[in-house]
Amino acid sequence: MRCSNCGGENESGVNFCQYCGAKLEQESNFSQNDFDKGQAGQTGYDPNYSNQAEYSNQTDYSNNGGYSGQAGYYQLTESQLPEEYRPLTMWGYFGYQLLFCVPCVGFIFLLIIAFGGTRNVNLKNFARSYFCVWIIMVVLILLFSVIGGGFATLFSLGY
């Protein structure tokens, strides 16, 4: 076991460094055999990992349990994602945008989805952003109505 303070090599199982007396950090409870038996997918450690993939410009996304070739990074397929994190497709965005444009029913669906009608985070965020656009549009319409009404009043009075 190597001391993190002085770098001296100590016997495994000792609590203090024999060279500087610093407290030694205990090694992980996992051994190489534990990783080889299937623990690699749970801990992010791949016993077959090579530093060569880290320095190449190509990333291998072959069927190896989602492991992307760099330590600690996994790439999940869409079917492996939990339902609440699944992305919307382009047609999904298009369909929801058409639904939200329906005058009264669309606005009701917009409110329901934006404030808790779905577990999908991406759909909820899309509905919330669309709701913010509605708020901005209403504020702009009111602002232009007030400004336009003020100008109409001034011109009608002859000033």
**Terminal residue distance:** 91 Å
Approximate helicity band: 40-55%
**Could you say which overall geometry the principal axes of the C-alpha atoms support?**
elongated
Query: Which series of helices and strands comes N to C?
Result: HHHHH
Report the mean per-residue pLDDT as an integer: 76
- As a whole number of angstroms, the C-alpha radius of gyration is 30 Å
Strand content: under 5%
Count all strands and give the number: 0
Number of helices: 5
Task: Specify the biggest β-sheet.
Answer: none
User: Structural class, from helix and strand content?
Assistant: mainly alpha
Number of domains: 2
Keyphrases for this structure?
Zinc ribbon domain-containing protein, transmembrane helix, transmembrane, mainly alpha, membrane, 2 domains, Znf_ribbon
Explain this structure.
There is one protein chain. The protein is mainly α and 159 residues long. It has two domains: 32-75, no CATH class; 83-157. Helices cover 47% and strands 0% of the residues. The chain is built from five helices and no strands. The longest helix is centred in the C-terminal third of the chain and has 37 residues, at 121-157. Residues 38-43 and 50-64 have low confidence and may be disordered. The chain crosses the membrane at residues 94-118, 130-157.
